[in-house]
Amino acid sequence: SQQGEEDPQALSIQEGENATMNCSYKTSINNLQWYRQNSGRGLVHLILIRSNEREKHSGRLRVTLDTSKKSSSLLITASRAADTASYFCATDFSSGNQFYFGTGTSLTVIP
Amino acid sequence: DTGVSQDPRHKITKRGQNVTFRCDPISEHNRLYWYRQTLGQGPEFLTYFQNEAQLEKSRLLSDRFSAERPKGSFSTLEIQRTEQGDSAMYLCASSQVRLAGEQYFGPGTRLTVT
User: Fold this and answer.
1) DSSP, residue by residue, A15-44
2) Which residue in the set B41, B95, B107 is minimally distant from A103, CB to CB?
């Protein structure tokens, strides 16, 4: 079974709004990452947050990590139509040897 | 182009045939991963190499699947006696040890078994 589970499964918002998606996982991790996948394409790495970090920013992206709740959230601010994609969290609990991806959140940003 | 490349991009094969996919990682990356992704699901880990050594293999991986990475550069994934359930997108990713975790993905090979 996969380690991470994203919530919601699908999200539809208007351009300019913020989008928040969540990831829950089951066991202790070394780090957690978020990836984006456009339809039919490979995945693009967005941001990595280590288990000893609580928050990280990259441009319009903000990621939080709560290891006590085994959860993470990805916030995309001021969304754009180009942000339409599937977003996956991936967890690593074996020092970079294996990564487990969730089922993803499908985000649609309506122009 | 310095990204991860995969070949072919699409493969249609008949059930029972063997297929082989190739992945060329980013040249300075010593870690290489293979994943399988079906529609509506996240990538599922198959196997992982550090240089030429295959260090991890998913317990879910059938013995019909084999992967190699000779000389620690490109890698091949072979599926023998394909089944319809093997139809999926096969993704390759590479990373550096010092940036453990940040993987760069190729565009994938879409396999259709008829």
Assistant:
1) TTS-EEEEEE-SS--SEEEEEEE-TTS-EE
2) B41
In this structure, what are the phi and psi dihedrals at residue A7, rounded to the nearest 5 degrees?
-145, 130
H helix or E strand, kind and range, residue A95: none
Name the B residues in 52-81 with CB < 8 Å from any A CB.
Answer: 55-56, 58
- Using alpha carbons, list the distances in angstroms from residue A53 to A31, A50, A67, A92: 9, 5, 9, 15
pLDDT digits (tens, 9 = 90+) for B48-57: 899 999 988 8
Element spanning A80, H or E: none
* pLDDT level of residue B6 (50, 70, 90 thresholds): very high
Q: Is B21 on the interface with A (CB under 8 A)?
A: no
pLDDT tens for A26-82 read 888 888 999 999 987 889 999 999 999 999 999 999 999 999 999 999 999 999 999
**B105 and A CB contact within 8 Å:** yes
Instruction: Mark which residues 17-76 of A lie under 8 Å from B by CB.
Output: 30-31, 33, 35, 41-45, 48
Task: Return the sign of the alpha-carbon dihedral for residues B46, A8, A33, A35.
Answer: positive
Per-residue pLDDT of B82-91, as tens digits, reads 999 999 999 9
| Integer CA distances (angstroms), A102 to A91, B22, B47, B89, in order | 9, 25, 17, 16
CB contact under 8 A, A103 and B31: no
